């Protein structure tokens, strides 16, 4: 399926049904489809051919999101560009992806102006709102359309996505229509959905350039509505769940912690929620248990990566509980079971597949896995060594088939000759009532090789002494895994999608 086919599928279930909602304004499927058609026609009028790369640089916005379907109907390739990136990183991505067209919001005109001179391949610049003199206005762009356009995708390539870029120069992940169709099928078969004729309502607070965006496709295929939040606001998020009768939403753990701490949570009507996805980073088991109690039995984990979007393993709301209805505490630290259309194994560094309980790199086989890295055959070959996709995560499968992620391979700390997985220490630290978030790293040390170091972000009004934290961790997981150094910072450095940047922490601590 092309990306626009999800929109068309939703429209086939009722063109006058609600499709997009933002700031009190609504768009039906027919309205969104009509605008997507005009965008496709305008792209063709500007010379965009099947397989050409079209980038969108915008915050969450319903018109910008509609451009995705116009790009798809024109047979072009969608390249989401994160507006939170630095200008140089976005310049490198646009050049790497061979983009010929860039659609952007006026709020990012300064960024675009800064880099456009270095991007000669981009022949069309389109501004969605107040256009600068060097870009086409939105109305002028739409007037470029000359005929109705509905083209097939070239070689099934649907989108190119930049990797996070936290460890070196980003790469371009090529995702095909088949990859995203597999992801959509896994989403629909693995989690609860309203029974027809009821339709889902999905609330998108997280960036549509990332996980929150691709989760829209199964919603559209079900004829559901997407409520778009332009800016993150936890209070408004809770209000929209109640007022829009939201059934599905997604947040990374850091934002879920803010939801749990928000004073409006106890009085918010959450009865419409069926599936509250969490993922993109490890979540504290204790805070997950709190969410299951205070938000409700609707929490649903997903584990994936850009190269295998979203659904390597899944944990539906019911999987968080035992048959008698009690919380299955032993599962809360897992990433669920491998998804039905995905084969997951654990591999040693020499390419040997390991038995249940043994720790090694998590490797994957599935039509979910990317085609490869754009114009980077060396990195593609490295990621697919031994015939498996290598995730870079260390983990194990337990006897019940649940996948446990113990660390990123690069984040394991070797201290005093022992392998210490940072996520295990972080889980222990998150159990302390004063700790809001944390990161554990290894710093060079003459005695220990690497000195296990914890950096804490505390809850408002809290204070804690380093020796108290060390005693707390030692009691739970032993002295070897107890940080030798404890720092307290006001805020932890984070990526554009909220992940803690351990490389930046190391730099700031002078490693």
TrEMBL record:
CDD domains: FACL_FadD13-like. Coiled coil: none annotated. GO terms for molecular function: ligase activity. Keywords: Ligase. Pfam families: AMP-binding (PF00501), AMP-binding_C (PF13193). It comes from the Bacteria. Residues 424-499 form the AMP-binding enzyme C-terminal domain. Residues 14-374 form the AMP-dependent synthetase/ligase domain. PANTHER family: LONG-CHAIN-FATTY-ACID--COA LIGASE (PTHR43767), MEDIUM_LONG-CHAIN-FATTY-ACID--COA LIGASE FADD8 (PTHR43767:SF7). This is Long-chain fatty acid--CoA ligase. It comes from Nocardioides humi.
């Amino acid at each position: 399926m092309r990306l626009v086919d999800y929109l068309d599928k939703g429209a086939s279930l009722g063109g006058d049904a609600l499709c997009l909602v933002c700031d009190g304004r609504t768009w039906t499927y027919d309205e969104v489809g009509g605008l997507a058609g005009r965008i496709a026609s305008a792209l063709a009028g500007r010379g965009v051919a099947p397989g050409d790369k079209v980038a969108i640089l915008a915050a969450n916005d319903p018109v910008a999101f509609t451009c995705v379907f116009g790009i798809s109907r024109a047979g072009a390739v969608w390249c989401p560009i994160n507006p939170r990136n630095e200008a140089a990183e976005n310049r490198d991505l646009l050049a790497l992806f061979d983009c010929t067209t860039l659609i952007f919001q006026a709020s990012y005109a300064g960024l675009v102006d800064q880099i456009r001179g270095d991007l000669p391949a981009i022949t069309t610049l389109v501004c969605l709102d107040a256009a600068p003199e060097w870009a086409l206005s939105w109305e002028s762009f739409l007037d470029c359309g000359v005929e109705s356009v509905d083209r097939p995708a070239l070689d099934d390539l649907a989108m190119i996505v930049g990797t996070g870029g936290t460890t070196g120069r980003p790469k371009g992940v090529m995702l095909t229509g088949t990859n995203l169709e597999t992801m959509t099928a896994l989403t629909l078969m693995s989690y609860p959905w309203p029974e027809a004729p009821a339709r889902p309502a999905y609330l998108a607070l997280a960036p549509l350039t990332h996980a929150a965006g691709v989760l829209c496709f199964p919603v559209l295929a079900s004829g559901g509505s997407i409520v778009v939040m332009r800016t993150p606001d936890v209070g408004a998020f809770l209000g929209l769940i109640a007022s829009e009768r939201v059934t599905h939403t997604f947040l990374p753990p850091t934002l879920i912690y803010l939801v749990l701490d928000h004073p409006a949570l106890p009085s918010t009507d959450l009865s419409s929620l069926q599936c509250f996805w969490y993922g993109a980073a490890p979540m504290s088991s204790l805070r997950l248990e709190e969410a299951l109690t205070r938000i409700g039995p609707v929490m649903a984990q997903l584990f994936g990566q850009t190269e295998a979007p979203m659904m390597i393993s899944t944990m539906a709301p019911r999987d968080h509980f035992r048959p008698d209805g009690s919380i299955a505490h032993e599962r809360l630290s897992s990433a669920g079971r491998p998804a039905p259309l995905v084969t997951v194994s654990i591999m040693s560094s020499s390419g040997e597949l390991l038995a249940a309980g043994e720790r090694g790199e998590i490797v994957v086989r599935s039509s979910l896995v990317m085609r490869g890295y754009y114009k980077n055959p060396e990195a593609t070959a490295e990621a697919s060594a031994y015939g498996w996709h290598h995730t870079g995560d260390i983990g194990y499968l337990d006897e019940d088939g649940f996948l446990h992620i113990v660390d990123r391979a690069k984040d394991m700390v070797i201290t005093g000759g022992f392998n210490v997985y940072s996520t295990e220490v972080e889980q222990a630290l998150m159990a302390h009532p004063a700790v809001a978030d944390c990161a554990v790293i290894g710093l060079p040390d003459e005695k220990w090789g690497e000195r296990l170091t914890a950096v804490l972000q505390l809850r408002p009004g809290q204070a804690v002494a380093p020796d108290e934290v060390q005693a707390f961790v030692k009691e739970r997981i032993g002295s070897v895994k107890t940080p030798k150094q404890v720092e307290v910072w006001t805020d932890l450095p984070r990526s554009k999608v909220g992940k803690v940047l351990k490389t930046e922490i190391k730099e700031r601590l002078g490693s």
